[in-house]
Structures are given as structure tokens and as C-alpha cells.
Backbone:
């Protein structure tokens, strides 16, 4: 067993991405899971990957303890990470951080690329210069952040009222933003949620389950809070968790859907959605995949055609 642990340590010290590390480490770490978790959300393979990744994160970030310095050579400042997926009220959370006076960092597509490429040192060096965070890539790397920043970090898991509400919000948003400027492909694996609705629901629900399970396993529930703005969460809950006074301003609600949308952007997005459905064989007359019935695909295709 010590030999296996030594091999894993060697793997961790390499500059390979975490995806490659997971594939290689599975040869050395036994998989104790042979059935679905009681949530029904995670397969044995997913559970094994989660535990292996957790071990890798812990060992890697423990080795980085000596690097916990800011650019001036001092100890890193306390961190507060928003780790809810986008379209869960992350922009509202970010504006709250601004109002509370924090040095805030929001979505950084370049850091998402770095994280997915395994260049985590680049991400850490940027994080060390700020205090609060939300949007990409932070929801994907909460384990690395947990082990890197220790008890100096707190985590806010923003949620929607239910998974279907989140999905519909994500779909609407994907049609309204510049099709050349988004993070969905790197974050979710698809340029659009259309035609892969079930897969996105699974991602959303699994993320919530895994975050809660991770903090419970490490007996760190006091460093995590779930917040749903739709259910009435606001200054009281957020500031109570952060042990800060409530500011004398109304609670913000940012990034509401605009009343009007650039018709050119809408048309381009719907054309690309139709193209994705075609690649997935989910256009009318195609074969339905695992995420969408043929009836639903036909209905979606007619809707896109009507508005194109």
C-alpha cells in the first residue's frame, strides 16, 4: 500500500492535467464502490473518480502549502468562493461582494482554460490576488480550493428553486448571449443545453450532491452555505455566514433577463442550436438520444424553425 501511495505522490508532482492523473491513478488506487450511491446520481466509476481526485487534490495542495504567499510575500488573504453553477444567481452574489467592499474576481474564461488544461498554478496565482470569487472556473475546482486555502476559505453554493428552473434559465440565456463568447463548452461539454437537457440536469444535481457530500466528509459544513435568492435568502443569510454587518442598501438582484434581445444574436444562436441538434440526431425525423425524446426534439426543432 505504501508503494502505491508513493506512486500516486509521483503522479501528483507531474504537470499533467487532473484528467490524465485520474486515468493513471486508477491503476494504483482500488475502487471500493460496486453500486450506485443511495442518491442514485452517481455510478461506481464516478464515485471512484471523485475519491481519487480528492486524494490527488489533498496531496497536491499540501505540497503547495509553502506557496501560500501573495505577491508581496505575505500570507494569503481570506477567500470566499461562490461555487454554484452559472444561472444560479452568481452575478447577484458577485455584486454583493462588491457592495461589501471585497476585492472581487468574476468569470475568467482564460482561467477556465488553464484549469481544464491542468495549469492550476496559473489559476492559483490569480486567486491569490483577490478575496472573493464567483462564476467559472471556481465551481469546478472547489476541492482544489478547499485544500489549497484551508480554513481561510468559505464557500457559497448558490442554487435555483429546482433543477428545471435552472435548466430553463440556462437555455434562455444561451440564446441571448454572443455565441462566440461563452464558457458552456468547457464547463458542460456542450455549446448549448438544447438536446442534452437530461445531461445538464444530471450535471446540476450531481454538482449540488457532490459539494454537500464533500464538505460533510471533511466535517467542514460550517464553511459552506447554500443560498437560493428565489426562496428569500438575502443579506441576513449571507452576512451572517460571513460574520459581517448588513450594509444599509437593498439586496441586489443582478443579471435579470433583458426585455429585448439583439435579433442577430438570437438568430445566430438558434441556427447553431439547430446545427447541434442535427449533430446529435435530434432534429425532426432523426433518432432520439438519451437526453430527449423524439417528440420533444420535433417540438424544439419546430420552435427554432419558427423563430429563425
Residues:
Amino acid at each position: 500500500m505504501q508503494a502505491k501511495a508513493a506512486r500516486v505522490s509521483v503522479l501528483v508532482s507531474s504537470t499533467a492535467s487532473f484528467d490524465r492523473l485520474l486515468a493513471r491513478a486508477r491503476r494504483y488506487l482500488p475502487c471500493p464502490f460496486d453500486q450506485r450511491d443511495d442518491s442514485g446520481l452517481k455510478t461506481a466509476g464516478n464515485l471512484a473518480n471523485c475519491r481519487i481526485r480528492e486524494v490527488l487534490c489533498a496531496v497536491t495542495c499540501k505540497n503547495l502549502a509553502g506557496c501560500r504567499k501573495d505577491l508581496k510575500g505575505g500570507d494569503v488573504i481570506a477567500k470566499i468562493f461562490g461555487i454554484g453553477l452559472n444561472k444560479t444567481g452568481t452575478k447577484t452574489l458577485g455584486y454583493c461582494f462588491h457592495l461589501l467592499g471585497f476585492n472581487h474576481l468574476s468569470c475568467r474564461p482564460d482561467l477556465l482554460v488553464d484549469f481544464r488544461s491542468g495549469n492550476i498554478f496559473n489559476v492559483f496565482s490569480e486567486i491569490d490576488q483577490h478575496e472573493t470569487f464567483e462564476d467559472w472556473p471556481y465551481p469546478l475546482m472547489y476541492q482544489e480550493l478547499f485544500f489549497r486555502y484551508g480554513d481561510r476559505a468559505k464557500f457559497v453554493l448558490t442554487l435555483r428553486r429546482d433543477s428545471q428552473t435552472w435548466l430553463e434559465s440556462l437555455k434562455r440565456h444561451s440564446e441571448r448571449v454572443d455565441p462566440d463568447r461563452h464558457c458552456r463548452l468547457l464547463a458542460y461539454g456542450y455549446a448549448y443545453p438544447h438536446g442534452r437537457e437530461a445531461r445538464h440536469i444530471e450535471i446540476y444535481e450531481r454538482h449540488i450532491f457532490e459539494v454537500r457530500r464533500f464538505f460533510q466528509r471533511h466535517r467542514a459544513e460550517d464553511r459552506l452555505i447554500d443560498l437560493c435568492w428565489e426562496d428569500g435568502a438575502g443579506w441576513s443569510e449571507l452576512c451572517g455566514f460571513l460574520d459581517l454587518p448588513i450594509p444599509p442598501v437593498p439586496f441586489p438582484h443582478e443579471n435579470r433577463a433583458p426585455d429585448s434581445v439583439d435579433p442577430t444574436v438570437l438568430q445566430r444562436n438558434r441556427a447553431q442550436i439547430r446545427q447541434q441538434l442535427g449533430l446529435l440526431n435530434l432534429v425532426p425525423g432523426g433518432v432520439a438520444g438519451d437526453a430527449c425524446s423524439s417528440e420533444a426534439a420535433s417540438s424544439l426543432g419546430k420552435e427554432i424553425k419558427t423563430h429563425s
The first helix runs from residue 2 to 13.
